[in-house]
Structures are given as C-alpha cells and as structure tokens.
Amino acid sequence: MKAWREATSLIIAAKNAAKSSESYDYALLLLKRSQKTSFAGAFVFPGGLVESADADLKWHNIFQHQHLNGRTFESLFYNLKDRPVIFHKKNNQLPREVSLRISAIRETFEECGVLFCQQIDGTQESETYPISGELLNFWQQKVHNDASEFYNMCSTLKCFPNIWALQEWGNWLTPTYIPAKSRFNTAFFFTSLGKLPNTQIDHNEVDELLWAQPQQVLNSHDSWLPPPQMYEISSIADYHKIEDLKEFALKKAKIGAIQFFPVRILLRDGIVVVLPGDSMYPTQVNFHENEVIEKLDMTVEEFRNISTNIHRTEIFDDSKEIKILLPSKL
Q: Which residues, 6+ apart, have CB-to-CB distance to 204 below 8 Å?
C-alpha cells in the first residue's frame, strides 16, 4: 500500500442544546482546509498524516502510570478478522489500534486545539483536557512543527491520550484514478462530547472551524465536501439524537473498520461510484491500476435498475446532482 499515505480522521459529535428546524440535538465539527494544504477549501473532519512518533513504544511509559480503571489496549480490539491493511501490526511499534488513535488525537489537537487527553492522577472531570491561553499556543505550535512533541507535551502535562474515547468507524482508500501524491489510506474514528468544547484553530492548516448539523452541511452550497466526508455525513444524518448516533457508532465499532475502495463506472449520462456491498462492485479490484469501468450504453437509472444491492454515489452530468445511496442500516 505504498501508493497511499497513511492518515487518520476523527468524527466529533457534540451535544448542542440549541433548537433548530432540523431537530438534531448535536453538531459535527468540520474544518475548512487552508489554501496552503491538500484539499484546499474543503470542509473535512479533523485529521492528518500518521507519523512514526504516534507508534513509538515509549508511549508505554505514559500509559503504565495512568489510571486505566480496568481498561486495556486489548479492549480496543473488537474484531481482529479481515483487518484493513492500515491496521496490520508492525514490528517494534504500538498496536495499530492504539497508534492510529494517538495520531487522530494529536492531529485534532494540532488543528483545532481540542485535546482528548485525561490527567494521569484521575482527577479530571471534563471530557477533554483543559488547556488554553499561552499554554495552548505553545504546545499547539510545537506539535505542529514536530509530531514527537505530542509525547513530550503529555509527559509534561501529566496526561495521556484517551484512546478509549475513540471508536473505530471506517477506512477509506483514495481511488487509483486520483494522482498518487494525493492518495490516502485513512482510518476514521468517532467520538462524542456532552457539550461543545473550546476550540482554537491552527491557521497554518485551517481557515475556518464549523459546528453544524448533518443535514445543514449536506444542504449547504458553500461547503465543498470530499467524497468520504459527504458519504459519512450522509450516513450520520439519519440519526437526529446523539444517543442514537452513539449506539450506531458502537455497532460499527464491534463489526470493525471496513475498507472502502471506490470504483468509478462511466455511464451515458453520468458517473456511478460503487462501494463494497454493491452488487456491481468488482469481485476483484486492482489496487495498482486505474480502476474505471465504462458502460456508456447505459444511463445511471438503467444501471441502478439492474442492480440488486445498492451502495453507491450517483453523479448526473446534466444537473450535477449527487445522490448517495446507502445500504440498509446495521
């Protein structure tokens, strides 16, 4: 999988007491990528590239001194069968289920100042570590410049990454028709909060921070969402109560992350992008060549009508309308 750079992304849903026409009782955190970064101008979940420091075995020095309350690394491993490549064990590193969570927590702190850590002495009452002001500025900049500083920060502040707050959500591989330099193998995680946390964006990477309800984001004409974000928010949008969303997330976590490698099908009046579980998804996919199938004698609707199982995105040439058709719920 060397053609893909490894990354993590964290979906954060926070309880929001404000009333709205959409009747959601929570909001999702989205960040608008700066013009200096990849996916410039896109609204994405917090996240970024995995660094070697995230998997350093010295993290044991911090975890062995903290109050686990019966929790272990093994409690993160719901399903170890048929794991996506990004979760495969590497020698002389932390288990990937641990290091990828550390990566997601580090990147979230770096980009928006929300720190999913707990004090080692077990006295912390808040869901996120209370860091602000000059201390936040100092460590946010140091971690931005050097990922290994995240360990040093946790050691100095006597806190540990709360990896147990993150649940496995999914795994996306950028399609091969995208240039190799822009391909990512991304592990997605989910977490929830009882209220909106304090935030502070890193202007090196982020232009804007947005708390928004799922349908609000999907209906907006001002928010460009990359395909994984559009798909995941669409799957979340059915859940108007955060407790129902948390239950859905737990079910997904117990199944384990499923790798999504989109395959593009060119049709007479548009494009369909199929995902695993769709009856038209190839029995075998080629991870090394441009995976595009041509069926120019059929329309999008005709192609849908001959499909027994649907799990896809439909893009229509004339109207530029995008439809995300999800399989039945878990």
A: 34, 36, 144
Compute the distance between CA of residue 325 and CA of residue 231 in angstroms, rounded to an integer: 9
How far is Cα 49 from Cα 286, in angstroms, rounded to an integer? 24
Residue 20 has pLDDT above 70, yes or no: no
Q: Where are the beta strands (DSSP E) in 125-231?
A: 159-161, 167-173, 184-193, 206-212
Residue 66: predicted pLDDT: 61
Q: How many helices (H) and strands (E) does the chain have?
A: 8, 15
CA pair distance 244, 260, nearest whole angstrom: 24
Average pLDDT on 237-247 reads 97
Tens digits of per-residue pLDDT, 29-63?
A: 999 998 777 777 889 999 999 999 999 999 999 98
- Residue-wise pLDDT for 174-218, tens only, equals 998 888 888 999 999 999 999 999 999 999 889 999 999 999 999
Query: Rg of the chain's alpha carbons, rounded to an integer?
Result: 20
Residue 1 has pLDDT above 60, yes or no: no
**Gap between the Cα atoms of 93 and 85, Å rounded:** 15
The one-character DSSP state at 264 is E
The type of residue at 126 is S
Which residues is 271 bridged to in the sheet? 266, 315
- Residues 89 and 36: their CA atoms lie apart, in Å, by 33
Rounded distance, CA 47 to CA 90, Å? Answer: 22
Residue type, 202: D
Q: Which residue has the tokens 């360990």?
A: 151
Are the beta carbons of 107 and 192 closer than 8 angstroms? no
According to DSSP, the residues that pair with 78 across neighbouring strands are none
Tokens of 201: 């964006």
